[in-house]
Amino acid sequence: xxxxxxxxxxxxxxxxxxxxxxxxxxxxxxxxxxxxxxxxxxxxxxxxxxxxxxxxxxxxxxxxxxxxxxxxxxxxxxxxxxxxxxxxxxxxxxxxxxxxxxxxxxxxxxxxxxxxxxxxxxxxxxxxxxxxxxxxxxxxxxxxxxxxxxxxxxxxxxxxxxxxxxxxxxxxxxxxxxxxxxxxxxxxxxxxxxxxxxxxxxxxxxxxxxxxxxxxxxxxxxxxxxxxxxxxxxxxxxxxxxxxxxxxxxxxxxxxxxxxxxxxxxxxxxxxxxxxxxxxxxxxxxxxxxxxxxxxxxxxxxxxxxxxxxxxxxxxxxxxxxxxxxxxxxxxxxxxxxxxxxxxxxxxxxxxxxxxxxxxxxx
Length: 363
Description:
Blueprint: E1 3-5, E2 11-16, E3 22-26, H1 32-51, H2 60-70, H3 77-91, H4 101-105, H5 121-140, H6 165-174, H7 178-190, H8 194-198, E4 205-206, E5 211-214, E6 225-228, H9 231-241, H10 263-272, H11 282-293, H12 298-305, H13 325-328, H14 341-362
Antiparallel strand pairs: 1-2, 2-3, 4-5, 5-6
Helix pairs in contact: 2-3, 2-5, 3-5, 6-10, 7-11
């Protein structure tokens, strides 16, 4: 049968193209007439592709499959699967050639289904990025000549929350778990991200060159990078190496991979240390802020922290401009070329005195 109803009442399409290829897909409708019309259209398109050498029509769902194939080895695959599933249900049945900007904009998720909480603009932008990436891959494959476009939502500026060295000491002392103290201390020493710290293995540490390798599957950018280790970090790791029981540098005592920090211990430590509005990632902000306050140039900080662009570290520039005074004094104007401001100042004083005398007389 060319169309048949499944157990959910949805009509399924089944036919063979002129080339012998069997096409099976869902009509996405419970109405037999609409399903038959869709079947006839697909069959007619297949005939035109074979006989008239017309470009085959592709669906958004096919583009999403290509999107997931492209993301197969990326570390955030789970998130992209979630996005792809959302877009498949929302607009997966639509043809790429007929897709409009309104189709995307009107189907952007607005709330979390489970809780009903409104999605932040940044989260909506992540969904937008996923569907736009899928459409761009479809265009690169020659499936469609052009793709629709929607602008990103305006996102609030990223917060920069950092603490002083005294506050950091109070925080570390307030942590109950030894492994949490080690993880937080190392984050403050190196500015490493949580995943970079927790997944670090001994074979990735080069003591001779004072570096740790962050592999591409762990690095946020997807590209491997070297994590510079200062003297304090090297001394810390040397001490840990003497008690090594696992290939993982940080563990709870049994040598197994830690997938997340102990958030309860971190939360209680913040309360004891009287530190508010602070997250684990802010340890990285704190490390970067301390660097800038001690005169580390932003370009150097960019390399130390593994940021991809200088704009990403520009947000720390305001924390200390004192080190720029050294360079500000490099440019001088010859004193012979300068006008005599002392005479002008004296002249201004005389004018003010005459003006005051006139006021007195007139009064």
